[in-house]
Amino acid sequence: MAVKPLDANSQGQVNMTLVGAIVAVATIGGLLFGYDSGAVNGTQAGLRAAFALDDAGLGFTVGSLLMGCAIGAFLAGRLADRFGRKRIMVAAAALFLFGALAQGLTGSHLFFVIARICGGMAVGAASVLSPAYIAEVAPAAIRGRLTSVQQVMIISGLTLAFVVNYVLADVAGDSLGLIGGIPAWRWMYLAQAVPAVVFLVALQFIPESPRYLVSSGRVEEAGDVLTRLFGAEAAARKVSDIRASFATDHRPRLADVLAPKTGLRPVVWAGLIIALFQQFVGINVIFYYGETLWKLAGVSEKAALERNIVSGLMSVAACFITMALVDKVGRKPMLLVGSAGMTISLGAMSWAFSKGTLDASGALQLSQSLGLIAVIAANIYVVFFNTSWGPVMWVMLGEMFPNQLRGSALAVCGLAQWIANYAVVQSFPAMASGLGLAPTYVLYTASAFISFFLVRAFLPETAGMELEDMEGWGGH
To answer: Taking Cα atoms as reference points, which of 333, 237, 14, 312 lies closest to residue 143?
Structure first.
């Protein structure tokens, strides 16, 4: 058993073998989150052809995943308080598997949308529960680093989807070509079934969150889990601290997030700020519509898919930078640097698109130099996002709420985050064709600029704090 001393403020030792196994399993949900979100990137021509979709129909079909995400994030936060983090993640794994198989095989547009919503519910559940579950078992001194693995896996899943899409399209000739009698775009969805099965099986071997066990009165089980994680002496102290952090008169409930004068507790408003602005900066336009975006900029399908892969690989590298810095530098400084960097790089993309010309069909064309500027700016933007708002938002949402509020606050913030995601993705095709890429990206630039001042004014620093100490500003 590998053990590691805790920091000076926490007695005991950490069983890093068990912690590492928990993080590895929990973040498979992040991999699936990323893959399910990115798989649609190369399937849009197939969706149009198979279901006779116009722009509005394609936008709805792509966005239907996000409808499910909003539902899943809200329900998962609440159900996790009632049934446990682990059980709801198992349910999410089953939905991932169903969604992958159904989207890849069905010939019915209605059933495809239903399956996509089910897959979205799994994505939404994984998005809020994986970082929260990791935060609830990780040592405070390295909690940010471990929770950041979630974003590494999300981007790895996106990149894996881009690579799979590229390979399948290359083998078949394009996304509409056949492989084994099945169109390549359908294989792009079916491939997700493999990690879904791995996730479903691996979840059977990790323990339930000790914070949930205490909240449900299973104190002895919580002590056993904490003893395995931190040793008997530290476990006894932690059980006592956790019990003290919960209300004595009721189990966690949705009403716990409310406050008399401000509607919601200040900690929930702070969570909503980072949940919403993570989407308003437009990152998922690149994730979901990367291929379409670069086609609008005048490149071929193959080149567009190649650029998706490059962006994905740079994102993974950026996340490792976050893992190295988030517990040393802190959450708030990284968000501020990210906001500044995204503002500059998005502004450069807006400028490059504004200088483009339209061909006879109305498609945007960029010169070689402008195209190079757009590509460099886009990749710089992705790097800044993935060293700041990408992983740090999930770190903070997993840790910033007091134990009594965590499930309910995650439900509220997760719902808001995915509604914002849906609004951005749903609006992009119409905005890009109606307003043009340059004005659309000016709006994302403005959001990044505003986010800097909101973070500076309203967000606390949570690095190194025990979860039981979050009540100092979250409040009961």
So the answer is: 14
H or E element at residue 133: helix 109-137
d(Cα 74, Cα 34) in Å, to the nearest integer? Answer: 19
Per-residue pLDDT tens digits for 333-380: 999 999 999 999 999 999 988 988 776 666 677 777 887 788 788 889
Amino acid at the residue 191 = A
Of 109, 105, 36, 102, whose CA–CA distance to 68 is shortest? 36
Tokens 């079934």 locate to: 193
Under the banding of pLDDT at 50, 70 and 90, the label for residue 4 is: very low
Running DSSP on this structure, what letter comes out for residue 32?
Answer: H
Share of the chain above pLDDT 90, in %: 58
What is the sign, positive or negative, of the torsion defined by CA atoms of 337, 339, 342, 347?
negative
SS3 263: strand
Reference 401, options 384, 387, 413, 416; nearest CA is 413
CA-based nearest residue to 345, from 318, 306, 320: 318
Helix extents (H) in 281-405 = 283-296, 301-329, 331-354, 368-386, 389-399
| pLDDT tens figures, 203-232 | 999 999 999 999 999 999 999 999 999 999
Beta bridge partners of 178: 183
Exposed/middle/buried for residue 173 (C-beta within 10 Å: 0-12, 13-18, 19+): exposed
Token pair, residue 381, equals 């933007």
List beta partners, residue 264: 258
Fold annotation for 16-474 = Growth Hormone; Chain: A; (1.20.1250)
Which residues, in sequence order, are bridge partners of residue 4?
A: 14
Domain ranges for the chain, please list them: 16-474
Helix H or strand E segment including 365: strand 364-365
360: exposed, middle or buried (Cβ count in 10 Å: 0-12, 13-18, 19+): exposed
Mean pLDDT of 4-10: 43
- Specify whether the CB–CB gap between 297 and 364 falls below 8 A: yes
Q: Which span out of 173-182, 340-349, 358-367, 413-422 was modeled with the highest average pLDDT?
A: 340-349
CA terminus-to-terminus distance, the chain: 38
Residue 320 in this model has a pLDDT that exceeds 70: yes
Q: Where are the alpha helices (DSSP H) in 54-108?
A: 55-83, 85-105
Q: Is the pLDDT confidence value at 88 over 90?
A: yes
In this predicted structure, the answer to whether residue 400 has a pLDDT above a threshold of 80 is yes
Other CB atoms within 10 A of residue 321 CB:
16
